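Troubleshooting log. The previous structure file for this entry was overwritten by mistake, so regenerating from the original sequence record. Sequence copied from the archived sheet and checked twice against the printout by T.R.
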Amino acid sequence: MKKQRILLLVNEALIPPDDLRGLTEDQIEHCRTEYNVLSTLSNLGHEVRVLGIGDKIGELRRVIRDWRPDITFNLLEEFSGIATYDHYVVTFLELMRQPYTGCNPRGMMLSRDKVLTKQILQYHRIPTPRFHVFPWGRAYREPRSLEFPLFVKSVTDDASLGISQASVVHDRERLRERVEFIHAQAQSDAMAEEYIEGRELYVGLIGNERLTTFPVWEMDFGSLTELQAGIATRKVKWDRQYQRRHGIHTGPAKNLPEGAEARVTQLAKRVYRALHMSGYARMDLRMRPDGSVFVLEANANPNLTYGEDFAESGELAGLDYDKLLNRIVQLGLSYRPEWRMFE
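Regenerated output below.
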């Protein structure tokens, strides 16, 4: 593709170094995604400038005005320390009439709001676990329509924060304890949803109007016990030593029931469109032993680290890492927000 002037937008604490030599594994892991994207885009011949964002937007406005990037490559996952605020930065980019990569503000806002996501899925008759919300700061009220076991989590925290083996509860007493724990720890509403026992599946998607789905991926919980394997805790997803110790890894889903892959990918596309997403995303699903599938979450702008789920499944679909990033840039340049109607 034509070489572009790209502004790489990252968290101010995750500005990648020019070289990884001399860094510890923990230091490398801290900014691996940002380094992968920066080095790959640069090696492809693009002119890349990195900007770290914390809680101030003025520098972003100045750089866009003075440097005039062709596109902003968005790697932000929060703004001012709040995960649900990242879509405001993308909204600002639209106000600046600045093309960007990844999901649009509406799709980000809808998919980041776990409760609103589930309400929309229910409206579209997309299977998702039944749930109940426990508002923070209000008197506890026990749900009557849900069946145990239940899975309890914060409605705002991301990346498996606050999720542990104790997140699955089997009786009323443990439910109340876990809800109160989430209220105290996250200071947010808590949500309990019916726990779906089965295989944990992921589907990557890329596109705006026309969508491409990547092969169905699966979490292999390795040597964890059957009880432990039911939950993708923060350790399971992000602790490299824990993963190596237990043989936890992800890869192409094998031995799916006949027709299941087509049904799962079609379901992922329905979610993408129902939530008005664009750019690229990953859907998290659970498949019961009987083959029924439930949507757990929709993730706008999923992890782009080289060798992780999204990039690996993209490579199996024919998009190696270079092509994947170039495709994401192309989609950002071709996306048609409202301001482009007046060009």
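The chain is about 35% helix and 20% strand. Archived copy saved in two places this time.
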